[in-house]
From TrEMBL:
Organism per entry: Paenibacillus taichungensis
Keywords assigned: Membrane, Transmembrane, Transmembrane helix
Membrane spanning residue stretches: 72-90
Protein name in UniProt: DUF4179 domain-containing protein
């Protein structure tokens, strides 16, 4: 049977909120806020506010009438805000209940361990989920860990997209460790992130018209750290290209997106085309896209030229210089089902002769970088079969090479101050 809307629900769907979706989740938030407003905590707050604003010189009868009118006004104002459901692109901007009294929004299962949570623990859990994860998840388990002096709180289910583990100090109620994650539609992401998207993409020469698609958030805090760190990743795309933005707390630390060819250095593009020709022996491979990732956290600025047939040229500007890579991303390995098969394949890789590798590499290296590979010394590492390095020890110039069991070269990288 179809649910019959209450009158207040009909009002919310009218202007100025008509363009914003009003979901069942929004409705439940409103109902929780109204329920809280009717509770003793809300009444105490209203009375406290009225008492502080009460004129001191009015006669007693006047003061009683004034207090009564102010209490009604305060209650009505807060209730109106809650019932209206302040929306921004379909989101509740600042739910009253979670802002003013965060523990009132905590949800619990009937786990017996809930009694272990003190008021301070409840507040720390509520505020941590609200401020860092952006959502209060239902607490499913609370456990005492007497050996470590902690109380363990689990919210959500381990296999779900929304999940949280919080460890609290049993004596003080303070946070000790935090692990939380959340996946959401782009429309659920806070507006303070979404409003940054066009300018961040423009700053790297990307397409500001990319549309947010989905977002992920991870929150972590290790023993000894003062506060949790929240990483938010937003995926973007349109019919032509894609991008990604990562924030640490509220600061963008990595921005990536496809570039218009007008934004690309023609010298760099010509070098990439020459590199692919030298690497593949084919001068007719078309350029598919050019992608840039500006990673401020790790101090890298990466330009990737993607050619047809899964070939790539990548230039990475880092603190110590420039790294250059030519990559064949096609898979030439067989699918192995046992560890014995994997070990046999690794043994074949280790048995590829140095002379064979040099014969394959020397003409490519000479054409790409104008250097003689003969003066570079080869280093093998049995822990990384299929990867070797060639180093010019007098300068620290290094090539790293990845190859298959038939000596097919699948990647060449150079780490140097080019």
């Amino acid at each position: 049977m179809k649910h019959k809307d209450d009158e207040w629900e009909k009002l919310v769907r009218q202007e100025p909120f008509a363009a914003s979706p009003f979901t069942e989740e929004h409705k439940q938030n409103v109902l929780r806020q109204v329920a809280w407003l009717k509770s003793g905590s809300a009444q105490e707050m209203s009375n406290a506010g009225v008492k502080s604003a009460e004129p001191k010189k009015l006669p007693n009868p006047h003061r009683r009438r004034f207090r009564s009118r102010r209490a009604v006004m305060a209650y009505t104002t807060i209730a109106a805000v809650a019932a209206a459901v302040i929306l921004w692109n379909g989101q509740i901007v600042e739910p009253v209940i979670e802002t003013v009294y965060p523990t009132a929004a905590l949800q619990y299962t009937d786990d017996a361990g809930m009694s272990l949570l003190t008021d301070k623990m409840k507040k720390n859990v509520a505020v941590t989920m609200r401020d860092y994860l952006g959502k209060q998840l239902r607490i499913t388990k609370v456990q005492d860990l007497p050996v470590s002096g902690r109380v363990y709180v689990e919210a959500g289910k381990e296999g779900d997209e929304e999940y949280a583990l919080i460890w609290l100090d049993a004596a003080t109620g303070n946070l000790r460790e935090v692990q939380m994650r959340r996946e959401m539609a782009a429309s659920e992401l806070e507006h303070r992130y979404l409003r940054q998207v066009p300018s961040l993409l423009q700053n790297i020469g990307g397409d500001p018209a990319l549309k947010p698609v989905s977002a992920k958030r991870y929150v972590g805090m290790k023993q000894g750290e003062l506060e949790p760190k929240s990483y938010t990743t937003l995926m973007l795309e349109n019919e032509k290209s894609y991008g990604e933005i990562i924030w640490l707390q509220d600061e963008a630390i990595s921005v990536s997106g496809d570039l218009d060819l007008k934004q690309v250095s023609q010298t760099a593009l010509a070098y990439a085309e020459d590199s692919i020709e030298a690497f593949t022996g084919n001068a007719d491979l078309d350029l598919i896209s050019t992608h840039r990732t500006k990673d401020d956290e790790n101090g890298r600025d990466i330009i990737t030229f993607s050619f047809e047939n899964n070939y790539y040229v990548q230039t990475s500007e880092v603190t110590l210089g420039i790294n250059y890579a030519v990559i064949d991303a096609n898979s030439y390995q067989k699918d192995y089902t046992t560890w014995e098969e994997v070990e046999a394949y690794h043994e074949k890789l280790l048995q590829v002769k140095e002379s064979t590798l040099r014969e394959k590499l020397e003409p490519v290296i000479k054409k790409l970088f104008k250097v003689d590979l003969q003066i570079y010394k080869l280093h093998r590492n049995t822990e990384t079969p299929g990867i070797v390095t060639f180093e010019l020890e007098s300068t620290g110039d290094v090539f790293q090479v990845r190859y298959n069991e038939d000596a097919r070269i699948t990647m060449i990288t150079r780490d140097a101050n080019l």
